[in-house]
Amino acid sequence: MIGFLIAVSILVVLMWRWHQMKQRHDSRIQQLPIRIHVNGIRGKSTVTRLIGGVLREGGYQTVAKTTGSAARIIFPDGNEAPIQRRGAPTIIEQIDIIEDFTSPSTDALVIECMAISPLYQRISQDQIVMGNITIITNVREDHQDVMGQSLQEIADSLSNTIPYHGLLITAEDREDLLDQLNRNTKARDSEFLYADPNWVSDEDMKGFNYLVFKENLSIGLAIAKIFNIPHDVAMRGMRKSLPDIGVVFIERTFVKAKELIWAPMFAVNDRESTIIGIKALQPYHLPDSTRIGILNNRYDRAVRATKFAEIAALDLKLDYYITFGAYEAQVTEHMVEMGYPRERIFNMGFSKNPTLEEILDQIVNLIEGNQGLLIGLVNIHTPQAELLMEFFHRLKGEEVESSDLSADLSHVTESVRRRRYLISHLLSQKA
User: Fold this and answer.
1) Residue 358: which residues within 8 A CB-CB, separation 6 or more?
2) Would strands 399-400 and 34-39 be described as parallel, antiparallel, or unpaired?
3) Helix, strand, or coil here: 169?
4) Helix (H) and strand (E) counts in the chain
5) DSSP per-residue codes, 109-144
6) Could you please report the per-residue DSSP string of 142-162?
7) Which residues are CB-contacts of 379 (< 8 A; sequence separation ≥ 6)?
8) Per CATH, which fold does 28-240 belong to?
9) Residues 352, 308: Cα–Cα separation, whole Å
10) What does the pLDDT look like over 244-287, one tens digit per residue?
11) Residue 325 β-bridge partners
12) CA 136: distance to chain centroid?
């Protein structure tokens, strides 16, 4: 009996403390006039940053928080700091962020959704963030074990963050999914706004040193329209916002009088995002540029190697492919079976273990004009891919002759190369 009474007492105390915390949290939330909850499958961190940039440039004191590749709190002056965690991330983190970093003078909170399961997404929106504007960047196939097997089921899962009596903004452009999101929005008595990529001109795309998508920029412009922020001010704010660590930085250099444009899309791991990403590269290269795909495969990801061989042969159809890492013979045969010409596939991975000079010579020899677009695909870490990443980070925009390539980087250990890459990556964000 005594043990039961102690347990009940502890439960009562915990419930009382939760009630007090919830009251304080609700009070803070209600002090924030603009609460933007960013959800979707791809681009959440980037869109969170872009929206924050729009609002800051428009004169709103804005706190933003990302969750993805590297969780960050972004302050009203645009500077940022990493989120310090003592354990695994949970949606309760959002309560602490709001308590620690917002104040009565904060005009806007832009916060990336941390939840994946439909239940946690609903709790995140209705009990924690209470966004009056929700963003659903897009609907793609991912997290199907918890969000549903079909795109329609995934759209319904994401819809759990749609506010009641608020606004949903999306750049998803498939008509059936748009209709579904619109119906789900009306069921919550909210307004619906499609962020049209046609709002973004090719001129708007200039000034970014990383790969940007019109769909993401259009969401930033949708926010600008709602708050009467001029188009040029919104674009300036988005250009000034620091990119997420997971974005694709576009790097250029010259090798033997040939311009190489390097787009390391290694982190993109699904068919649809790969197709969209390569299409988004069009403003960064000339129409007659030779397009070369790097299929970079690891021994522990055989299924992905097969999957991307099919994507490369059937969907991308680049001018040439170079294989790095493992499964080179299998990938080559599979692509040939899919109809891609064998003579346009070159194996430069573990079958050859080439030097940096040999890799660059092969690339330059494939370029038919003055410019080549080199696209890294599938995975990041193989010795050959890391040689290229190290090369581009060391030689940004500089002319390189063959004599400069004799210093092979293969003696540098993988961990050192990886550390150099990450340091350069972070520094390039601050430049």
Assistant:
1) 348, 352
2) unpaired
3) strand
4) 15, 15
5) EEEE----SHHHHHHIIIIII--SEEEE----S--H
6) --HHHH-SSHHHHHHHHGGGP
7) 266, 296, 297, 298, 301, 304, 325, 385
8) UDP-N-acetylmuramoyl-L-alanine:D-glutamate ligase (3.40.1190)
9) 21
10) 877 888 899 999 999 999 999 988 878 888 998 998 898 889 99
11) 297
12) 14
Angle at 31 between CA 41 and CA 46, to 5 degrees: 25
Q: How far apart are CA 54 and CA 237, in angstroms?
A: 5
Parallel, antiparallel, or unpaired for β 34-39 and 62-66? unpaired
Which letter, b or e, does each residue of 369-381 get, where b requires 16 or more Cβ atoms within 10 Å of its Cβ?
eebbbbbbbbbee
pTM of the shown model: 0.78
CA–CA dist 252, 373 (Å, integer): 9
Instruction: Please give the torsion angle defined by the CA atoms of residues 419, 416, 322 and 369, in that order, rounded to the nearest 10 degrees.
Output: 70
First to last CA, the chain: 66
Q: Packing angle between helix 302-311 and helix 328-337, nearest 10 degrees? A: 30
Q: What is the pLDDT of residue 5?
A: 66
Sign of the CA dihedral with 311 first, then 314, 316, and 318 last: positive
Token reading at 25: 């949290």
Q: What CATH architecture is 251-430?
A: Alpha-Beta Complex (3.90)
> What burial class does residue 58 get, using C-beta atoms within 10 Å of its C-beta: 0-12 exposed, 13-18 middle, 19+ buried?
buried
pLDDT of amino acid 128? 93
Query: In degrees rounded to 5, what are phi and psi of residue 428?
Result: -65, -25
Rounded CA-CA distance 167/191 in Å is 5
Domain ranges of the chain: 28-240, 251-430
Q: What is the pLDDT of residues 35-45, one digit of tens each?
A: 999 999 989 99
Beta bridge partner(s), residue 170: 136, 194
How confident is the model at residue 142, as a pLDDT? 83
